[in-house]
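Data availability excerpt. The first of two example chains:
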Amino acid sequence: MKNIITFITLIGLLLVGCGSSEKPTTNQTTKKTSTETANIDQPPLPSNAVKAPEFTLARTNGDLVSMSDLKGKVILLNFWGTWCGPCLVEIPDFNTLHEKYYNSGLEIVGITLTSGSASQIQSFADKWKMNYTLLTDIKGNETQDMMTVYGQATGGPITGIPTTFLIDRNGYIVKRYLGPRSEEIFYNDLKPYL
C-alpha cells in the first residue's frame, strides 16, 4: 500500500511540477514590433513573444554570465532546483539535447533555485553528469529575483518549477513551459530556431 501511495504521489509531481499549474499569458507592452528587425534570421515571432530580460548570475566556479553573453544562441532557460523531483526528470534529456545540438547553437542554461552553495550545486551536477551551464546567486537571491522578472515579462508569475523558456537567437522568448518535458518535445519546438 505504501508503494502505491508513493507511486501515485510521484506521478502527480511529474504531471504538475514543483508548484501549481499556470497558464502563460503575454505582456503586450514588451512585444516585438515589425520595425524591430534583428540581424539573425529566425522564424516569424509568435504574437506573444517578448524580449528576454537581461540578467547576470554566477557559474558554480564564480564566473559571471549575462544574457547578453548568450546573444546569437538558441536558449533553453530552465528554472530548477536540486530538491525538485520533476526537475530531475529533465536532466538526462537536457544532457542529451546539449550533446546533440550545442554545436548547432543551442545553449541550455539552468538557473538553480534555493539549492545551497555553489560547491553543493557543483557536486550535484557532477553526480548527475550535467553538461550544460548552471547559474546561481552572486550574493543573495538573484535567482529568485530573475524568476520573478521572467514571470512578469511573460505575463504571469512562475508558480512552479521546472519552468523553462525557449529563447530564439534574437533574444525573444517564444515559448514557456511549466513542468518537465521530454527531449522530443523540446527538440520539436526548438528545431526551427537552430
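And the second chain:
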Amino acid sequence: MNHDQHPNDSVLTQDLRDSLCELTTPERPTLAAITTRGRAHQRRRLAGFASLGVVGAAAGTALALGLTGILGAAPARSTSTIQTMAFTLVKHANGTATLTINTNVLLDPSTLQSDLEQDGIPAIVNTGSFCSSDPSPAGFNQVTAAPKPAPGAPLDFTINPAAIPAGTELSFGFFKLANVQGSGHAGEETVIGLIDTNSYNCASTPPASGYANVVSIPGGPK
C-alpha cells in the first residue's frame, strides 16, 4: 500500500484514485496569457455590437425612406419654357401649361404639335384645316378655356393635360380669312376642340360657331 492509500478504502476506490493520479494537469496559464485572451474576447463582443448597430441603422434608414415614399408629399413636377417666334409654351409646376400664340407670325403646325406632345399634351395641329369628331367628346371645358383677346393681341390658352379624357386629343386649326365674321377685315380664325383619336375628319373650312370654341382675330393677317 502506497502513502496515498487508506486501509479502509475499497479496491474500486483505490483504482479510481490511482487513475486520477495518472492524469496530466496542464500548467496554470500566465497572467499575460489570461489578459491577452480577455482582450481578444472583449474585441469580439464589441465587433458584434457594432455589426448589430450598422444593421439596425440600415434597417431604420430603409424604413424611413419607405415611409417618406408612402406618406411624404409627392415631388413637384418640372417646369419648362419653349419659345419660338410664333408661340410660347410654358409648363407649370402644377401640371398645367400656358400656350401663347403670336397671331402676327406664321405658325409651323408640326413644330407646335411636337412641342405640345413633349409637354404631355396630345394634339393635332393644322393650318388651313381643322379636324373634328361628330359627336365632339365631352370634357373640353375642363381641358382648356378659349381666350377672348383684343384684336391683334396674342392668344393665351391654359391647358390641363390631366383633364384630357383617355382616347381623345386636342385639335387646333388656324385659318387665314379675307373677312373675319363679317367684319370687313382680313384676319385669322383659330379653332380648338377635342377629338376622338379613333374617329375624326378634317375639313378645309372652320366649323360653325358653337360646334367648338372658336376664336376669331380680325386684322393682323399672317
